[in-house]
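Researcher: If only I could read backbone structure tokens as easily as an amino acid sequence. Walk me, if you will, through where the backbone shape changes along the chain. I have put the entry right below:
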Amino acid sequence: MRVLLQRVSRAEVRVEGRVTGAINRGFLLLVGLTHTDTEDTLTWMAEKISGLRLFADGKGKMNLALDEVAGAVLVVSQFTLYGDAQKGRRPSFIDAARPEQAIPVYERFVALLRERGLQVETGEFGAMMDVELVNDGPVTLWLER
């Protein structure tokens, strides 16, 4: 599992002009899944994301987690995070999980985030999505498990 996490002051995802998910302060998560992702992988990632202290406290230090700032999460599936462009000009996506495997894993990951009390919005798995964001910081992390 690979997650590109961006701290945002606003983010929105649209499919064919229709808003499928929008948040204000929080994290935009671009989520890539692979064949070997397990329940342990998903649980670890949900715990990591819900506990990351990336928001400023009263002294300006990144010391507060999502729940301490009433933050939300926008989760967008992104199979291209498993793109391998080492050879040639066209990336290979062989390491990305196929939709029939990835959809239930993606849905489980979203459920695990919600179980931790987070407000979670999503894109639409497999759709062509327009993602708009205002990056806060910028603060961007690459998480992999």
User: Anything to note?
Assistant: The radius of gyration is 15 Å. The longest helix spans residues 99-115.
